Amino acid sequence: MVLLAPLGISPGQARALRVIGRGEGALRMSEVAARLDIAARSATGVVDSLEGMGLVSRTVDSGNRRVVLVGVTAEGEKVLGAMVSARLEAGEEVFSGLSFEDRDRLLEVLRKLDS
Questions:
Q1: Do 3 and 89 form a contact (C-beta atoms < 8 A)?
Q2: pLDDT one-digit tens code per residue, 42-80
């Protein structure tokens, strides 16, 4: 996605960052993999890349020292905010040719398809 390029993040990394940063606190690596619907070793690679960029950090769970938790850093929060702005900008660009009534109708149709 062109709007992610200035952020230096790939679509896959962006998806993982959104999952990790959903506001539920730090996640176990196994939970990250499950929510992304990918293998644990693939999740490790994605988290490694995000950690290398300073967007997430790993900590040891104080309740179970064998468990690694992944959480979003302050820099990761900034990038998440920029991603939201980029998505809104892209949406406005795509739907700018539609009237508000057409947008409402489209939203209604999409909600029916989603149910």
A1: yes
A2: 999 999 999 999 999 999 988 888 899 999 999 999 999
Sign of CA dihedral 34, 37, 42, 44: negative
In the sheet that 27-28 helps form, which strands lie side by side, from edge to edge? 27-28, 64-72, 56-61
Extended strands (E) in the chain: 27-28, 56-61, 64-72
Q: What is the pTM of this model?
A: 0.80
Ramachandran angles phi, psi of 22, nearest 5°: -70, 0
Place of tokens 């996605």: 1
Burial class (CB in 10 A: 0-12, 13-18, 19+), 89: exposed
Identify any residues that bridge with 69 across adjacent strands, giving them in sequence order. Answer: 28, 59
How do residues 84-100 score in pLDDT, each as one tens digit? 888 888 888 888 999 99
